[in-house]
Amino acid sequence: MGSTETLAMPDVRRTTPGQDRSGDERRVGVEIELSGLSYEALVNKVSSLLDAPAHETARYVSEVDTDLGPFVIELDSDPIKELDLADERLPRSLRDLGSQAMDVIDAAAEKIVPLEVVSPPVPLSRLHEIEALVDELHLAGAQGSREAIYFAFGLQLNPELPDLKPETLVRYLQAFAGLYDWLRHRHQLDISRKFTTYIEPWDNEYVDLLMADDYAPDQETLMRDYLRFNPTRNRALDLLPLFAHLDRPLLETYVEDPRIKTRPTLHYRLPDCDIGNPDWHFSTVWNDWVMLEQIANRAEHLAELREAYRGSRAFSFHNLTHRWREEVQSWLDARGYV
Asked: What is the Cα–Cα distance from 298 to 243, expressed in whole angstroms?
């Protein structure tokens, strides 16, 4: 599956001086959900492709040690990973079956529960290695969301931000809000993910607040505004890991969830993982994210997008007969983005 696309790069490739990683190349974490391979086969394949050793850290969790850091391969189901057939709370009939029962559980789990490859933070200049990994996993038989009705696999991005100033965050959030319908149409290919709740859009009232020309909150106000309307991880662009990094005590006045990891990144959860499709690549998703970044860092275009979005919310014959995602497509075409 030779890639037909090149990896685009954002306008801002380094962190802003004064940040934790001042002036360093920005990095991106990648999470790939898939099926079609057994857990053991996936661990061996990733280890071989990355030319790095693998070791098991827990049941159904392995790490491949690379110079970038560990790539984690796991079965994405905590109850199965933590299952202990010696637990006296289980029925005796199941405990007595021992390893035979576990073999049956394992075989079933690998067919219906996604396997996941989670990268360490990868510098922008080395994202071609993720592109190559995804392409090679396709050739090895990996399958994505379209392969079965119960699959709802995603390819998630955790892009490090240039800086954590509220005005920077607002620009990125506004660009995402304006592009959301268009991105969803582009990357929500499979019906199983369209009907899941963990990639919901932001609350409409929040987006109206966010897209106002005079919206210029400080960090606390930004967090409170978002959390008042979106107190959940289940958003297409999830801000809770970032908020945990910025001010966990404030976050926990709205949401307490041990699954929230602390990261100085956005968490882009929207796209399908269509890895079984020979015309789909990591760059298929990444390049659209870069487009969002470009808009976020081009003041004139961001202002135009905000104005057009606000216009789309008004009651008019035009808005009744035109879809916003089609308006976005025309706007992007006219400005040379696609």
From this structure: 25
63-119 confidence digits (pLDDT tens):
999 999 999 999 875 544 444 445 454 455 544 544 554 454 455 555 557 899 999
User: Angle of helix 324-334 relative to helix 166-187, nearest 10 degrees?
Assistant: 110
In-domain check, residue 86: yes
Contacts of 197 (CB under 8 A, 6+ apart): 234
Residue with tokens 């015309």: 279
Domains contained in the chain, number: 2
Query: Strand pairing partners for 58?
Result: 61
User: What Å distances lie between residue 271 and 157, 172, 192, 282, CA to CA?
Assistant: 9, 17, 12, 10
Containing H/E element for 70? strand 69-75
Residues 154, 264, single domain; the answer is yes
Residues 22-49: tens digit of each pLDDT: 789 999 999 999 999 999 999 999 999 9
DSSP letters of 313-336?
TS--HHHHHS-HHHHHHHHHHHTT
| Distance in angstroms (rounded) separating the CA atoms of residues 329 and 313 | 17
pLDDT class of 197 with cuts at 50, 70, 90: low
> How many angstroms separate the CA atoms of 90 and 67, rounded?
42
Q: How far is C-alpha 321 from the chain's CA centre?
A: 32
In-domain check, residue 252: yes
Q: Which of 142, 170, 194 is the last residue of a domain?
A: 142
Within 10 A of 277 (CB to CB), how many other CB atoms are there?
18
Contact 151, 35 (CB under 8 A): yes
Q: Given its phi and psi angles, is residue 299 left (phi above 0), alpha (psi -120 to 50 degrees) or beta? A: alpha
Q: Classify residue 255 as exposed, middle or buried by CB count within 10 Å of its CB (0-12, 13-18, 19+).
A: middle
Q: Which domain holds residue 155?
A: 150-338
Do residue 189 and residue 158 come from a single domain? yes
